From TrEMBL:
Predominant localisation class: membrane
Family classification: Belongs to the TonB-dependent receptor family.
InterPro entries xref list: Beta-barrel_TonB_sf, CarboxyPept-like_regulatory, Plug_dom, Plug_dom_sf, TonB-dep_OMP_SusC/RagA, TonB-dep_OMP_SusC/RagA_CS, TonB-dep_rcpt-like
Name of protein: TonB-linked outer membrane protein, SusC/RagA family
TonB-dependent receptor plug domain mapped to chain residues: 116-244
Compartments, as annotated in UniProt: Cell outer membrane
Cross-referenced PROSITE patterns: TONB_DEPENDENT_REC_3 (PS52016)
Source organism of the structure: Sphingobacterium nematocida
Keywords: Cell outer membrane, Membrane, Signal, Transmembrane, Transmembrane beta strand, Transport
Xref: Gene3D superfamilies: Carboxypeptidase-like, regulatory domain, TonB-dependent receptor, beta-barrel domain, TonB-dependent receptor, plug domain
GO terms for cellular component: cell outer membrane
UniProt membrane topology term: Multi-pass membrane protein
Species classification: Bacteria, Pseudomonadati, Bacteroidota, Sphingobacteriia, Sphingobacteriales
Record's signal peptide: 1-21
Length: 1059
């Protein structure tokens, strides 16, 4: 056996050597239709695995034998072929993008494919398009540019994250954001709370948090490919349910090494503030009509007297949010030879926040390298990033409110109080109500920002090593091993004397360490052959993954030595510890078979089987298949001036999502704060509240997708239509169970999500001349998410901690996935308000589970315009959304405190409705004729046995718990908006000027504006909002506006030089 193997091995080597002996060096240059060199064009010897990429000026060199065919492919451009003859130099001109019917895109596992061969929708963006509205967070750069991609920029805070959803949510209680893959290695994009919220008090609603894809330097990205549907992402199996975003970073090119320096100066400001009243001062009117005002009232509510002509009004809100200045600098060095290339970069981003003392700083370093040794190719990349965020509490959380939140406080701070007065001359805290308990203080926002900081320090290292061997011209083998690891340290500090619980009056410090590590191994082999008119390709592979997360938290309060803030400076009885470790392993085998006939009929079949450690032993193996195909019908239509290209496509796929670690078992746990509850004596362990389930199944998403792609009028207009239907079953959830079992919650499978959607993408060049060109791209999307088959008796499901007043983010059985639940006024069968017979106030109907709105937009998308005139370029992106309800929780809170614009109308209150006068024999109520109750300021009214002033009645109507707030829809808006997301003007030095500069190869200056204009019917802040930040667990908190940092508008000037 050994001898036979050696003979076979030497035979293969001899065969390969004979082939190489016939080959010769082929070189040339690839140019575009305007004569400029095109970089990053893939040059492939047809029928082999030999390939190279063009360098910065479009030149290339590759080994090929006479008679072989060279294929030239560029992502987003056309394909051209050239047969090798006796010559050694071939200069190629690629078709323009409007003529590109053989466009190449990056698909699952990083495989480049002709777009015309795909049976599903894939869209991608190159580095040039991404950099037109460059942001620190690459997710924001996708907004409005790709159909079916819904990006929500959650906050204007420094380092704020963004959420991204592809074609609606697929999980009721799990993360619905897509899988990110960078250079073939899965890249964690965790969002939300950095730490254990039950331990340190941090919630996803009271501060600004990042999402971890922000750790990537956007300048390093060459291409982003979005696999929107399960069929496109099927090779990722258990990770494919929410779609996949593939990021490819830059490589060096053959030729002289080049250095590129980029620098940007950014200025940002708040684009919108909530509407507020500026007519009334702090105070309130008693029942007898007496005005209570001044510090003696101990109130922050603005229910007092009107401002007089000589009264001072302070601009607390606008003074608190300052314009910020940021710097973004990067440098890269790249180069290569005929056999290898390298890319080295470093960047530094410094962002000052609009809130006092807040900032976000990020530094990155990256190295990518490749080298060919004959038939062996090796490559490696490594990236390091350090991100530091300094923030503070923005709100006190969504369950009620406290004086902790800085933004929350700034929005309701009375106009007759100077918010800048927050310290006494001796540096101690200024307390306007210094006679009351400190625990009852409503802390000044400046105190919160300066004395209650929150820090997040993340160090991240990612890398991979790749090796590939071209065994023959039709068989290759590739192996990739990768790692993604980051260590995150967070701290939460509360200054002694803050308005917090009595136990923390001498200060509190909470520190958390998170250590995340993901290691993967992927081996893949590919066979491709041509049999007559058939091209066939078989891909086989296997992956192994291990994820481990370790969390350690420590907390101390009541500092012994004043001014020395450390957990060790507390008594043992005033400390608490928390620790958690999780590990997960997954192994998968996958395959893909592709076949085409005469370049007009294509079919792809994939299959993947995953084994995961998080599911029960009997249920941990699952198979995920897909099938897709496309047919180019234009090949059978005579050539005409209307239809240039036409394709129909269809796909079906089944993908999944496995469980979180350890949900199959039930555990005993150590409570986080035994020392707190037991005066330091401690106890042992207790049963967990959550019961495991050894019969859990993975979530399964089945998808159908149908589409038509058309190129019209000589390929000048391109259209892509897509319809899809996704059904996600076996939802992993933890509903309440009978406490007789000894538990509160229990893991189970129940519920389904059904998403139906339409997508349209259009590309057109209305004007194309030698010196002037106008390119326009439009995308439009609609998704409708419904929930079905929840557990018996479960009409509504709440996942996130998003609640303001009686309004909550929810999913309804048989209703909308992204719903809002709330309370309503009681109404008669005829629809009249049922009023209290004595006060005339509306009443609640007793339910808080009404489905009062749907946060999902009816239509969303973007319109991207690009104008090129010689060396000048002007581009702008319009982003729009039609429909989708937004709950204005910020206005709710401001109304209860007398600061909203709607609370300004307090001179007269008129209420019209019916009152209950009796009951019928069947207990149904009898109502009176329609009545009207009126109350005016300055008058007294008899209500029951009480005399009450009009001012007291009217203010009580709006205050927390008042009758006005029993109708949650009072704060709802069915929102439409159109915004100028970005506008950018750039100028590049022309070639004739650069030719006179020996050192400079390229120079571009850019002026960019972001969010400079917004039209909307929404009266709150920016309608693009998410109260719980960038997380997308379940139906998320998109569409809930609650005391967030206002969105930013800004301008920036950039300069790019290449040497």
């Amino acid at each position: 056996m050994k001898r036979r193997f050696l003979l076979t091995f030497f035979g293969v080597c001899l065969y390969a050597s004979c082939l190489m002996a016939q080959q010769k060096a082929i070189s040339g240059k690839v140019t575009s239709s305007d004569g400029n060199g095109v970089s990053n064009v893939t040059v492939i010897v047809k029928g082999t695995t030999r390939s190279v990429q063009t360098n910065a000026d479009g030149s290339f060199s590759i080994q090929a034998a006479p008679g072989e065919t060279l294929i030239f492919r560029a992502i987003g451009s056309g394909e051209t072929s050239q047969v090798v003859g006796s010559g050694n130099v071939y200069n190629i001109k690629l078709m323009g993008s409007e003529e590109a019917i053989d466009e190449v895109v990056v698909t699952a596992m990083g495989i480049k494919k002709e777009k015309k061969a795909l049976g599903y929708a894939v869209q991608d963006l190159g580095s040039e398009e991404l950099m037109k509205n460059k942001t620190a967070n690459i997710v924001n750069s996708l907004a409005g540019k790709i159909a079916g991609v819904n990006v929500t920029q959650t906050s204007g805070g420094a380092g704020a994250g963004a959420s991204i959803i592809l074609r609606g949510g697929t999980s009721l209680e799990r993360d619905n954001q897509p899988l990110f893959v960078v250079d073939g290695v899965i890249y964690d994009n965790s969002t939300g709370v950095n730490g254990n919220s039950l331990f340190d008090g941090a919630s996803s609603t009271n501060s600004t948090y990042s999402n971890r894809v922000m750790d990537i330097n956007p300048e390093d990205i060459e291409n982003v490919s979005v696999l929107k549907g399960p069929a496109a992402a099927a090779l990722y199996g258990s990770r494919a349910a929410a779609g996949v975003i593939l990021i490819t970073t830059k490589n060096g090119k053959e030729g002289t090494a080049s250095v590129t320096v980029n620098s940007r100066l950014l200025s940002n400001w708040a684009n919108r503030f909530p509407e507020y009243q500026d007519q009334y001062k702090r105070g309130f009117y008693q029942q007898d009509g007496k005005l209570m005002e001044g510090d003696a009232t101990a109130t922050m509510g603005s229910w007092g007297a009107k401002f007089g002509p000589n009264d001072q009004r302070y601009n607390n809100m606008s003074d608190f949010f300052k314009s910020s200045v940021s710097w973004d600098n990067s440098v890269s060095l790249s180069g290569g030879s005929k056999t290898g290339n390298f890319y080295l970069s470093a960047s530094d981003f410094r962002q000052k926040g609009m809130l006092p003392g807040t900032e976000y700083n990020k530094t990155t370093v990256r190295f990518n390298g490749q080298q060919n040794y004959g038939i062996l190719k090796v490559g490696a990349n490594v990236a390091y990033s350090s991100a530091d965020q300094l923030s503070s509490l923005t709100s006190g959380g969504l369950y009620g409110y406290s004086g902790e939140g800085a933004v929350q406080g700034a929005f309701i701070w009375p106009r007759d109080m100077d918010m800048k007065h927050w310290l006494n001359d001796d540096g101690t805290k200024y307390r306007p109500f210094n006679w009351q308990q400190v625990t009852e203080d409503f802390d000044n926002p400046y105190w919160v920002m300066n004395k209650m900081p929150r820090t997040d320090d993340t160090k991240r290292l990612t890398g991979s090593f790749k090796a590939g061997i071209d065994i023959t011209d039709w068989w290759d083998l590739n192996y990739t091993v990768g790692i993604d690891r980051y260590m995150q340290k967070t701290s939460r500090f509360t200054e002694p004397g803050s308005g917090v619980s009595q136990i923390y009056q001498k200060g509190l410090l909470s520190e958390n360490d998170n250590d995340f590590q993901y290691i993967s191994s992927n081996i893949m082999t590919n066979f491709k052959k041509k049999f007559g008119d058939f091209d066939m390709n078989l891909l086989l592979g296997s992956t192994a993954e291990m994820t481990s997360i370790e969390y350690n938290g420590r907390k101390g309060w009541n500092f012994i030595i004043p001014g020395f803030y450390a957990v060790t400076n507390t008594a043992l009885t005033d400390r608490a510890l928390a620790q958690q470790k999780t590990k997960k392993r997954m192994v998968g085998f996958y395959g893909e078979y592709r076949a085409s006939y005469k370049n007009y009929a294509y079919i792809t079949v994939t299959g993947r089987n995953d084994w995961t450690s998080t599911l029960p032993i009997d249920n941990r193996s699952y198979f995920y298949p897909s099938v897709s195909g496309s047919f180019i019908f234009s090949e059978f239509i005579p050539q005409n001036d209307i239809l240039s290209f036409g394709k129909v496509r269809a796909s079906w796929a089944r993908v999944g999502k496995d469980a979180s670690p350890y949900v199959t078992n039930t555990y005993v746990v150590t409570p986080a704060e035994y020392t707190l509850y037991n005066n330091g004596t401690g106890v042992g362990v207790r049963n967990d509240w959550l019961r495991g389930n050894r019969e859990l199944l993975p979530e399964i998403t089945e998808s159908q997708e149908y589409g038509v792609d058309l190129n019209l009028f000589g390929n000048k207009l391109g259209l892509e239509f897509t319809y899809y239907k996704n059904r996600s079953i076996n939802q992993l959830m933890q509903p309440r169970t009978s406490q007789a079992t000894g538990y509160i919650l229990m893991w189970t499978n129940a519920g389904e999500i059904v998403n139906n959607g339409l997508e349209l993408s259009a590309k057109v060049s209305p004007i194309k001349k030698e010196d002037f060109r106008w390119d326009l791209t439009l995308n439009a999307s609609r998704n409708k998410g419904k929930v079905e088959n929840l557990l018996p008796g479960m009409d509504v499901l709440y996942v996130t901690d998003v609640q303001v007043g009686n309004a909550k983010a929810a999913s309804f059985n048989g209703g909308n996935f992204m719903a809002i639940s709330g309370s309503k006024w009681l109404r008669s069968p005829e629809g009249h308000l049922v009023l209290n017979a004595q006060s005339g106030m509306p009443q609640s109907d007793g339910l808080v589970t009404h489905e009062i709105g749907n946060r999902e937009s009816k239509l969303f998308g973007g319109l991207n315009n690009n104008f090129q005139y010689k060396s000048w370029n002007l581009s702008f992106l319009l982003d729009y959304r039609i429909g989708g309800d937004v709950y204005n929780g910020t206005d709710y809170y401001m109304t209860t405190m007398g600061m909203s614009k709607r609370s300004m109308d307090r001179e007269k209150l008129t209420l019209t409705g019916v009152v209950k006068t009796g009951e019928n024999p069947d207990k149904t109520p009898i109502y009176s004729e329609v009545q009207t109750f009126e109350y005016e300021a300055g008058k007294m009214y008899k209500i029951g046995n009480q005399d009450r002033s009009g001012e007291d009645i009217i203010s009580s109507y709006y205050k927390d718990g008042g009758a006005y707030n029993l109708e949650s829809t009072n704060y709802m808006t069915n929102t439409n908006w159109l915004r100028l997301r970005t506008i950018s003007l750039s100028y590049s030095l022309p070639k004739n000027m650069l030719s006179r500069m020996k050192a400079i190869k390229g120079a571009t200056a850019t002026l960019t504006g972001t969010n400079l204009w917004l039209w909307t019917n929404y009266k709150g802040m920016d309608p693009e909002t998410s109260a719980a930040g960038a997380g997308a667990v379940g139906s998320s908190s998109v569409g809930i506006d609650y005391n967030g940092v206002p969105a930013m508008a800004g301008v920036n000037f950039g300069l790019s030089l290449t040497f």
